[in-house]
Structure formats: structure tokens, C-alpha cells
Amino acid sequence: MRHDAGFTLLELLVVLAIMALMLAAIPGLALPGVNAAIWAGKIQAVAYRLESAHDRAVASGHEIVLGAADLQSDGLVASLPSADSKLIFFPDGSVSGGPIKLKFHNDRRMVKINEVSGQVALSEK
């Protein structure tokens, strides 16, 4: 009788199958963190577009008009108080329009713009 040290092919396959199942579960655990990072990036992009429109209006001396469609991106839905609402950035730095509601999957946030200064503020849900 011969006794060799080591593992059989069947034992190695079982270990590999268990490892594959464990690795398959990891992305599901990390998904909420990934969605939060994507959401934060989309909010930053909206804030940048709003601040950029404000700065362009002040620098050019002309009104800059943005609609909800100008603020949307892949998976992000932006809505203004009414369907025909527009954000108007004036050369004096003021803004007319209203709060912007953002929705990404099941998460909702509201972006408010100070009508006098044009400062952008994010509120929770």
C-alpha cells in the first residue's frame, strides 16, 4: 500500500467550487457602497452644472437658462416644480426657478438654490 501526501483532484475541485461561491457573494455585499459613491458623483455633477451656469451668467452678462433635462444623466432623474419650469441664472448672480428634486434608483434628494446669491445646497430626502 502506498500513502502519498497531498490532495485528490476531487478535494481540489470542491475547494475551488466553495471559493467561487464566496467570490460571487462579495459584489452583492459591496453594491450599497458602490451605489452611494455613484449617487455622490451624480450629485456633484448636478452641483457643478448649476454653479457653472451661475458663473457663466455673471461672467457673460447674459441670462443662462437650464431645464430639468439639462441636469439629468444616466439613471438620474431631475425634476423642477412644474413641467415647464426653468432655472434662470441672471447676470447679477440671482436665480429664479425653484428647488430641484433628484431621484436615483430609490434614493431621493432635493437641491435648493439661494435665489439671491445662487448658492447651491443639498438637503436630505
TrEMBL record:
Q: Which PROSITE patterns match?
A: PROKAR_NTER_METHYL
Q: Spell out the InterPro entries in the cross-references.
A: N_methyl_site, Pilin-like
Which SUPFAM superfamilies does the UniProt record give?
Pili subunits
Q: This chain belongs to which protein, by name? A: Prepilin-type N-terminal cleavage/methylation domain-containing protein
| Protein species of origin | Acidiphilium iwatense
What's the superkingdom here?
A: Bacteria
Q: Report the Pfam families cross-referenced here.
A: N_methyl
